[in-house]
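Hey, can you fold this one?
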Amino acid sequence: MLGVFLSLVFFTFLCILFFRFQKPQAQPELSQTTSTSPWWVKIITEKPRCTYYFGPFDSLQEAKLSQAGYIEDLEQEGALKIAVDILQDQPTVLTIDEEEEDE
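Sure. Predicted structure:
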């Protein structure tokens, strides 16, 4: 029993040493990622309570340049409290009407 305990302590010690002295992987910058996932503009409005996805875009910059037009269209339709996020995703539904889901 003592042998098993000492083996576990030794194994734990080796694991700690291994993970402690491992070199951290360099994280690529967002602008340098070469992922093939498309970019989407996600807009959430509070009135009406909806989530909209606009895209797909080939680059983050293309999505950023397009967001102003979508915001302007929603404001003209009377949308209030607009929040914008740009993400690399693949939405399954492009418009989510949360008011309909509540009913």
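The longest strand covers residues 39-47. Let me know if you want another pass with a different chain boundary.
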